[in-house]
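> run fold Polysaccharide lyase family 1 protein
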Amino acid sequence: MLSKSLILSLFASSVAAAGVTGTPFGFGAATTGGGDAEPVYPTTTEELTSYLTDDEARVIILNQEFNFIGTEGETTEDGCRPDSNTCPDDGGQDAINGADWCTNSDYPTVSVTYDKAAITPINVNSNKSIVGEGTKGVIRGKGLRFAGSENIIVQNIHITELNPQYIWGGDAITLAGTDLIWIDHVKTSLVGRQHIVAGYDPSNRVTISNTEIDGNTSWSASCDNHHYWALLLIGSGDTITFQGNYIHHTSGRSPKVGGTDSGTLLHAVNNYFYDNTGHAFSITADENGRVLAEGNVFESVTKPIEDGVDLLYAVTDDGAACSSPLGRTCQVNQLTSSGDWSGSATDFLSSFADEGVEAEVASGVAASVKSNAGVGKL
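> ok
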């Protein structure tokens, strides 16, 4: 069982902002979102978009589903069939020409028909809290993007159905040129591209907690009903706390970590990785992705880490290397029916000294995460 101290830190009963349960912690601890603004309750997709994009500090409560599918029409155009799609008649993913992906390849051209709403996420403005009630807060067919905005809380909402049949079909949550983000008790599912992406622009201080990345899909790049494009963390100088999350039925990028300049510093702690047919961590050393992974559970994960990574401390020993830089030992990770797990880099551990997060032993993590991660569990 997880200790009382960890439970209190993850599921605090105090209120950080109106409508928000608990308080942020880790690198995103200073996030306040919409603060004490009077909550608003949108009733249409237009009203929700208006609240998310205006210049006011907002606490936006979602007590219904917002279905964007069809609101911007459908289009048919040339896409392509990547080499990964060896099962076009049995659930593979063809690709929309996102970022000229098809144009700059030799992949054969195919016709693709997709919903346009998922391709253009809502550009959320600063100082917003977006909170779902119970399991009612669903956004269907449209993602959220934080670019040039900051201080945003997203809690207890489900983002789903973003052209899942197509690569480049849409991202659920995008961070680019932002700061102070807390993503908590969120669920993402049936996404064409990334569930969460922190792009090349700085995302700075971020906490992702108690969130469910559900990779179950009928269309997959790996042709096995497991989503490949899960988490892409490739910012510049980003510091990300990733704690208490449930990442399941994926086949890659769970997460991919890298970036430009000083890259991404990621603390992956007490997460549950389940049923991954490819790789979980992919760390791009030449892009300065640096990861401390402790107290995580890997169950039925073919490759917990891709080969050739040297900027990871994957705690497999007594964790004593953390004693000096962090003032405590780090917790060993637990692997069951999974591949090899290694990584002994410790030069960057002092970068976590002020994060204020501790790990619990891995033995109680799977049960706790399955009980607490995702929507409707506050």
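The longest strand covers residues 272-283.
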